[in-house]
Amino acid sequence: MALSEIEQLRQILEKSQHILIVTSASQSTDSICGGVAWKKFLEKHHKQADIIVDNFVAPKNLNFLKGIEEIQPQISHLQKFILKVDISNVKIDTLSYDIKDNWLSIYLTPKQGTLTKNELRTAQSGLKYDLIITLNSQDLESLGSVFFNNTDLFYKVPIINFDNHPGNEHFGQINFVDLTATSVSENIYKTLMQISSHDIDADIATFLLTGMISQTQSFKTANVSPATLANASQLITMGADREKIVKNLYRTKSMASLRIWGTALTHMQSDSKLGLVWTTITKEDFARAGATEEELKGLSDELVNNSPEAKIILLLNENISGENKVHGFLCADKHHDAKTLLQSYQPEGNKRTATFSVSGKTIKEVELEVIEKIKKILLPSA
């Protein structure tokens, strides 16, 4: 009799010792919180776990969650290359090295006699991880540079794929793609309840509820079901601090955040035929508000709340670090595909949200160009 997915997951977790948890490069609060919840759960089962999010910078509004600081922006020390020397006949006196023109030279000086290539051997250690858990990624490319810089790892190590998007490519050896879940955090909650519900402590419950609240805009989105509310209630019973979550996600905004959000809402434009709402933020806007790009997190939700008829939300902002670049974020409803709409820009993300960058053009040029490309996709005969 074939094993169920949960039984398969239990078996592979029991066998695994060092697990990599990696989320979509879009860095949603939902996937971040789901990832840390998984890490804490695995550590309760005496497993070593690392969580990696491409180029991660911790959002200020999540600093109240203990464990966010453990997320790393890239994989390090994935594998060791070993140089072996047979010293049974020739003893080594000194060892030194030098780096020049991107070449590493290792110098071995014998006490007596000579060393030849016959005494040298090379080897490499096994991969650091024996299992990968991916979150909120419809395909491996959505993981960003974590995947592109370590492709061998993802093709050699088993993958457990957690998602709640219909466009998921089921690239894992085991796929938990739950289209009824409002968020990947709710998906993870359902799974952990089946594996070992008594190991979901107050910290894990708080992470999972934070992900659910963030992804559903505090349970206001259309896909919230009675089952979702029951799951949230159970997490509160398990110790999740709803008041603290809501306070930090929605009630703690700096003056700089409020100013830059106000500017974005003032600049907001729309196209009713496309169902598109967009806004732009320049370097000067950031300077006047005393804000950074960090303050833009959550702005897309605010734009949705201020334009409920919108099907597509586009946010463009100039890079403030000096390089001439425009960053873009696009959020689409369930009837559209964010990555398809941005296909000309090699976007990262998933069907619902995607990010991209354009270099060498002004923000006005990018604005006109992106809207025109979206228009051609949605209204090809126009």
From TrEMBL:
Organism: Candidatus Magasanikbacteria bacterium RIFOXYD1_FULL_40_23
InterPro entries, sorted: DHH_sf (IPR038763), Oligoribo/pAp-PDE_c-di-AMP_PDE (IPR051319)
Top-level taxonomy: Bacteria, Candidatus Magasanikiibacteriota
UniProt-recorded name of the protein: DDH domain-containing protein
